[in-house]
Amino acid sequence: MGQSKEYIRLAADLQSDSIVDGPGLRTVIWTQGCSHHCKGCQNPQTWDFNGGGLVPIEMVKEAIDELENQDGITFSGGDPMFQVEACLEIAKYCKEKGYNIWVYTGFTYEEIMKMSKKNPSYKEFLSYIDILVDGRFILKERDLSLLFRGSRNQRLIDVKKTIKNNEIVLLDEDEYFEKSSFKKKTIYV
Ligand code: SF4
């Protein structure tokens, strides 16, 4: 997929008021395109890199301007990492607006760091992310009791602490929910 800073290919309109894509009331940006093709993926319609619709990033920003009562923004898909330049532009804007950012990706954190050696935008995108939910969905690792993720191999990575410590730091769920206004909640996907 070609990279653009002006357009993003989306699978759907922005979806507000989600309670299953991270804590609080969140708006989800459903990116189109994913080549991981995980068995049991819930959104196979988002795999096609020519599917969905090409949307000017300015329009996405306008939609973000109109949001009300949202605690955060979640990038999901599809896999946002396939459109890192566009997602970076949007993430910068979300942070300017003070939103907490979660990103779901089929890549592992380590794979993203490797990719960032060729394209520093991956690392820059990471710097705007609060929590990265990483790794492919593995059907035999599926666990309905997990917080905000579908399979046991997937991790809720505290990106700020991970960058600071230069090693993977997982989200301390109790601390996170105690300090923030988010309620701890298990989801069933
Ligand atoms: S990474 Fe996500 S969107 Fe892509 S195939 Fe796996 S579960 Fe589906």
Strand content: 15-25%
What is the oligomeric state here?
single chain
Intertermini distance: 28 Å
Number of helices: 6
- Strand order, sheet with most strands: 2-3-5-6-7-8
What ligands does this structure carry?
iron/sulfur cluster
CATH class: Alpha Beta
Helicity level = 25-40%
Mean pLDDT, to the nearest integer, reads 93
Low-pLDDT residue spans: none
Rg estimate, integer Å: 15 Å
Q: Give helix and strand order, one letter per element, not per position.
A: EEEEHEHEHHEEHH
CATH topology: TIM Barrel
Secondary structure: number of strands: 8
**How would you describe the shape?**
globular
Q: In terms of structural class, how would the helical and strand content be classed?
A: alpha/beta
Can you describe what's shown?
This protein has helices at 57-65, 84-96, 109-118, 121-127, 159-165, 173-179; strands spanning 7-10, 15-18, 26-30, 53-56, 72-76, 100-104, 131-134, 155-158. It is of the alpha/beta class and 189 residues long. It has one domain: TIM Barrel (Alpha-Beta Barrel), CATH 3.20.20.70. Strands 2-3-5-6-7-8 form a six-stranded mixed beta sheet. β2 and β3 form a beta hairpin. The chain starts with 6 loop residues before the first strand and ends in a 10-residue tail after the last helix. The mean pLDDT is 93. Bound molecules: iron/sulfur cluster.
